[in-house]
Write a structure and sequence with these properties.
Elements lengths: L2 H12 L3 H22 L6 H14 L10 H19 L2 H10 L7 H8 L4 H9 L5 H14 L5 H8 L3 H25 L4 H6 L9 H13 L13 H4 L13 E3 L19 H4 L16 E3 L85 E4 L5 E3 L5 E16 L6 E2 L4 E19 L15 E2 L3 E4 L8 E15 L7 E8 L1 H8 L12 E2 L31
Parallel strand pairs: 6-9
Antiparallel strand pairs: 1-2, 3-5, 4-11, 5-10, 5-11, 7-10, 7-12, 8-9
Helix pairs in contact: 1-2, 2-3, 2-4, 2-8, 3-4, 4-9, 6-7, 7-10, 8-9, 8-10, 10-12
Length: about 550
């Protein structure tokens, strides 16, 4: 988080700057959504609680004395709304709500697994959350973000309304119950015949009664209690994990009127902070009338990957280094671990002065090979026009990054919505220097994913089709890290395959933590360090100092 940027934005919003208020709400909505969504496990009330939290924050922003305490103040508001909701719900209504939920409805645990591509023990942790009681789940919603680097322990304690010492005790007890729940998830995935007989009367909905029954069985069962792999502590699995994006279908009802709203015009549309709350996250939104509802229309689901999926259709890549056309046919990607592009399509990395260093298509490193040491470059902070978490999901979405420091670009590819040729994002208007320093996230997007579908990759599968890279383009990892020394604009040029980017200013410590997370931590592979510490470090492909009218025309071979 760029503290200085948000301090000035909050001050401007308090002074009545409408644009600053828009940016504030857009930047912090994902954090609130993750806290409320995980605490309520995706219940239908999530929309209402998120809305009420944001409205109360805006209405009371003038009472905030210290801009540096905005995050803890906002989180405390969210937790109060969650607790108020719990107090308003009677036991009868709780029972009715449970019966009203569709049996196959996606809860927040499922959304977390799908949208963040979790697998192995990370997936196990997400699914174990279902087995926690409401109070534990509320605390976990904060602790999850603390471990992920989004909150501090002081902010967690303040949000719950207890001391840090008491918070430590509460968190430890919650973690013990979370580990018990992880054991249940593992056991249910197993093949114990006694457990199968025990669960014959279970309706499939996790609750405290069945948690105790299953935990008792596991403690006394040699089969279920036999852990064949070392269990990684949950806090190590969640380090650096991203926020769950606002999902398709998420709605936020807006009541116009009052000091923070703008009245609807005769044409039936309205512009103001409320109309822009989801603009960066949910384009395209439905047209609004007074008291309208914005509907999230973005695609955020990410799928993962096995090598060499069988072809869906036989094609020959025809894309030029300048970028593919939107009509490129869908086909499985050739494995980038053994590329064979032509010399003109695959520029090589040359150790020359900055301005001509271009990253080549590389081979996938051994999953167990630890990365080289990451050189530490000077950091004074990076300011992003997209705020702390910029989500870019549609053609033309862009973010300008300025300053000196590290930036994370997280890929989300959605061939289930639209497969075919992928038109790469581009970096334009570069002033200063830009380096491609590392790759992480625990996987390349062409790594294996599913144990049941041998065709599934992060680029697609045989059923949905694949996102196809232009010939000679570097295979992206889940997380790509860059170092900015100056300013540059990153633009999504989505015209073929469906994809989106999440862009986060980050730090050297976070980059190193990510690339050093490997198979022992539940990742598929260790990260890759590209930075040499000097000007011969690779620059990304599709970067230019020019500012073309159409960023998609930036050639693959970088001109800097």
């Amino acid at each position: 988080m760029d503290t200085q940027h948000w301090r000035s934005t909050i001050a401007a919003a308090q002074a009545g700057d409408r644009q600053a208020l828009d940016e504030l709400v857009e930047g912090w909505l994902p954090l609130v959504y993750n806290i409320v969504g995980r605490a309520l496990n995706g219940h239908a009330d999530v929309d209402d609680v998120v809305q009420e939290t944001m409205l109360r924050a805006v209405d009371n922003l003038g009472s905030l004395r210290d801009p540096d305490s905005f995050r803890s103040w906002l989180v405390a508001i969210a937790m109060r709304q969650i607790r108020d909701r719990a107090r308003r719900r009677t036991p009868q209504r709780l029972s009715d709500d449970e019966r009203a939920l569709p049996h196959d409805a996606a809860d927040f645990a499922e959304l977390t697994v799908l949208r963040l591509q979790l697998e192995g023990q990370r997936r196990e942790v997400a699914e174990a959350v279902r087995w926690l009681d409401d109070e534990d789940r509320q605390l976990l919603s904060l602790w999850w973000l603390e471990v992920a680097g989004e909150l501090t322990r002081r902010e967690l304690a303040a949000a719950v309304g207890i001391s840090r010492q008491h918070a430590a005790v509460r968190v430890q007890r919650m973690k013990e119950r979370l580990e018990t729940s992880r054991g249940i998830v593992r056991a249910l995935d197993g093949a114990c015949p006694d457990l199968r007989e025990l669960t014959g009367r279970w309706n499939g909905r996790p609750d405290s009664v069945w948690r105790k029954r299953l935990a008792r069985h596991i403690r006394g069962c040699g089969y279920c209690g036999d852990t064949r792999e070392s269990v990684v502590p949950a806090e190590r699995l969640l380090v650096g994990i991203a926020l769950v994006p606002i999902p398709v279908g998420f709605t936020l009802s807006l009541a116009f009127g009052g000091k923070t709203a703008v009245a609807a015009t005769a044409a039936g549309t309205s512009v103001g902070w409320s109309a822009k709350v989801l603009s960066a996250l949910t384009k395209p939104a439905v047209a609004m009338t007074a008291g309208a509802t914005i509907v999230a229309g973005g695609a955020y689901v990410v799928v993962q990957t096995p090598d060499d999926p069988p072809p869906r259709a036989a094609v020959s890549p025809t894309a030029s280094p300048a970028g593919p056309t939107a009509s490129s046919p869908a086909a499985p990607p050739t494995r980038s671990a053994s590329p064979s592009p032509s010399p003109s399509a695959s520029p090589t990395k040359k150790a020359e002065a900055y301005g001509s260093v271009v990253d080549a298509v590389d081979r996938a490193p051994d999953p167990t090979a630890k990365p080289a040491a990451l050189p530490r470059r000077p950091e004074t902070g990076v300011t992003s026009t997209g705020g702390a978490h910029a989500t870019m999901n549609h053609r033309g979405d862009s973010v300008t990054l300025s300053g000196k420091g590290y930036v994370l670009v997280r890929w989300q590819i959605s061939p289930q919505y639209r497969a075919g040729g992928l038109v790469m994002p581009s970096w334009t208007g570069l002033k200063g220097k830009l380096f491609h320093v590392a790759s992480g996230g625990g996987r390349r997007m062409d790594d294996p994913f599913s144990t049941t579908d041998t065709t599934a990759t992060g680029m697609g599968n045989a059923t949905t089709g694949y996102a196809v890279l232009p010939s000679g383009t570097q295979q992206m990892w889940q997380n790509e890290y860059f170092y900015v020394d100056g300013s540059v604009t990153l633009t999504v040029n989505e015209r073929g395959a469906d994809y989106g980017l999440n862009v986060f200013p980050t730090t050297w410590d976070k980059v190193e933590e990510d690339v050093l997370s490997g198979p022992p931590e539940g990742a598929r592979r260790y990260g890759l360090v590209r930075d040499t510490g000097d000007d011969d470090t690779p620059v990304p492909q599709y970067v230019t100092r020019a500012t073309p009218a159409d960023p998609a025309t930036v050639p693959q071979r970088s001109r800097v």
